[in-house]
Amino acid sequence: MSESVYRVTEVVGVSSDSWEQAAxxxxxTVSGTVRDLRVAxxxxxxxxxxxxxxxxxxxxxxxxxxYDK
Length: 69
Description:
Layout lengths: L5 E10 L3 H13 L5 E14 L2 E14 L3
Antiparallel strand pairs: 1-3, 2-3
């Protein structure tokens, strides 16, 4: 069994379209600077409201990545 160490970091993705797109935005942005992403877990979903209508979808993710030895 291999021994590994992972870090978990919380990020927030935002989209005017959907929670799914907000999650994609977050993962794609993080993957631009962090190598070896492993898992993203949804921690919380919410929306911002403007004039009684949903303005933005926000999703909080815990993303994990593996440390290099």
